[in-house]
Amino acid sequence: MELQVQHALNWIEKTNEKIQTNKDYLSALDRAIGDGDHGLNMARGFQEAVGKTTSSSYTSVSDIFKDVAMTLMSKVGGASGPLYGTAFLKMSMAVKGEDSVSHERFTKGVEEAINGIIQRGKAKEGDKTLLDVWTPVLRMLQEQSDFEADSLENTAKSAMESTKDVMAIKGRAAYLKERSIGHLDPGSVSSYYLFASLAEVLKE
Ligand code: ADP
Ligand code: MG
Ligand code: MG
């Protein structure tokens, strides 16, 4: 299958729903090892993103991702805004030129998104950041030749859960050193919502 304009619109809306529902939870996670604003940051950003995408009309997935990127970059303070913004901008560029997006193109987009996140934040997999979800998701996508909703959901979920046992090397949580162990990484939880939402959209 291909990711169509309507899939991409639904993806952003569903992600926003999960983030709004879990806004307090995300902030509580960030209160434990950061500054307590991750839920607020993401809720503001995705609410604005949905405001933009639902009031515009699109002929390509790329343009949707671009609007999401611009909105997240301009409306979200904190580390997560520029990082998610960069991710969507890189995905937008990678899928440009076609109305809908093949599995192969999407996989390339996720790879470019990760490169952008690394370029900006200088983290690597295992540093207890959202890369700990994005990177296993990329590996899973690369192993498959078509979208597989269940493995996407499962991979993102177990990757998110695995951030609990890890010591933070990057982001605010890194200040806590060993004391960051035993807590989930907030950005990995919001990234899990992102990919779980995509999995749900793929099943519709
Ligand atoms: P801030 O830390 O500025 O308050 P948020 O609370 O919104 O921003 O986002 C924190 C999340 O951002 C972390 O949980 C982590 O997943 C992610 N993050 C922080 N720094 C980096 C980085 N250098 N590279 C990748 N992800 C990062
Ligand atoms: Mg924070
Ligand atoms: Mg902050």
Summary of the model, kept short:
With 204 residues, the protein is mainly α.
Compressed to H and E, one letter per element, the order equals: HHHHHHHHH
Average pLDDT reading = 97
CATH architectural grouping: Alpha Horseshoe
Taking the sheet with the most strands, its summary is: none
* Rg calc: 16 Å
Approximate strand percentage = under 5%
Count of helix runs: 9
What small molecules are bound in this structure? adenosine-5'-diphosphate, magnesium ion
CATH topology: Serine Threonine Protein Phosphatase 5, Tetratricopeptide repeat
CATH homologous superfamily (4th level) name: DhaL domain
How much helix is in the residues?
55-70%
- The total of beta strands comes to 0
The CATH class is identified as: Mainly Alpha
Low-confidence stretches: none
Total of domains:
1
Write out key terms for the chains shown.
single chain; mainly alpha; globular; binds adenosine-5'-diphosphate; binds magnesium ion
